[in-house]
Design goal:
globular; 7 strands; alpha/beta; two-stranded antiparallel ribbon; about 210 residues; 2 domains; single chain; 9 helices
């Protein structure tokens, strides 16, 4: 039984993928795979080829994609759709889902993240089906979720937002420095886990285009 592997769409918080990795899951995001700006169909095809469950806030489009793929006899590794929700809540639900379902169980499935929750009695449930997981299950990361560095997560969101803005501006204006800083700002939250280091690097990248104009 293999654990599900995740691929977060570009509308998902950039901090989600590294936080999932910190919890012991295999997860990558759109910026670190160099797939920013790709179409929904392209992202789903990439995720399927890599055997990764795609996670997105784009509920309507990917629900329609899932239906179309099923009609065509195509097989996604799984799709998880969600309304926008706080990062901490999203992480808890994704880790819960990964604890309850292996990769084979999620194949061809469309899951709504809002259906996943954890009861106060310690049993884990899905609104559509109940799944009790023995204590001390497969993912120690679920128990360690409270250890996530909230500051790092928030910094990741902020710097990724700046990065996307710089990237769009740099590409439109053909300006090398904003473009490069934009890419860097979207990538550094995936590779730097210490808040103070991330804050320092991010701050430098944000102000750099104001001093180097070319």
């Amino acid at each position: 039984m293999s654990a599900p592997r995740f691929f977060t769409d570009e509308d998902i918080y950039a901090a989600v993928a590294p936080a999932l990795r910190k919890a012991g899951l295999d997860a990558v995001g759109t910026p670190e795979t160099g797939r920013l700006g790709e179409s929904d169909e392209s992202q789903l095809t990439f995720a399927a080829q890599k055997g990764r469950v795609l996670v997105t806030f784009n509920v309507a489009h990917f629900a329609a994609r899932h239906a179309a793929w099923m009609q065509q006899g195509r097989h996604p590794a799984g799709i998880v759709v969600s309304s926008q929700r706080p990062i901490g809540d999203m992480l808890r639900r994704l880790i819960h889902l990964a604890s309850a379902c292996d990769a084979d169980a999620l194949r061809d499935r469309l899951e709504y993240l809002g259906d996943w929750w954890r009861a106060s009695n310690g049993r884990r449930h899905n609104r559509r089906r109940s799944a009790t997981i023995e204590s001390g299950g497969d993912f120690a990361g679920f128990r360690e979720l409270s250890m996530f560095d909230t500051t790092t997560l928030l910094l990741g969101v902020v710097f990724s937002a700046f990065g996307l803005g710089y990237f769009v501006y740099g590409r439109k204006q053909r300006a090398v420095v904003p473009l490069a800083c934009g890419v860097a700002l979207m990538v550094v939250p995936f590779v730097i886990v210490k808040a103070i280091v991330l804050a320092s690097v991010g701050a430098v990248l944000i102000v750099l285009p104001y001093f180097l104009r070319f």
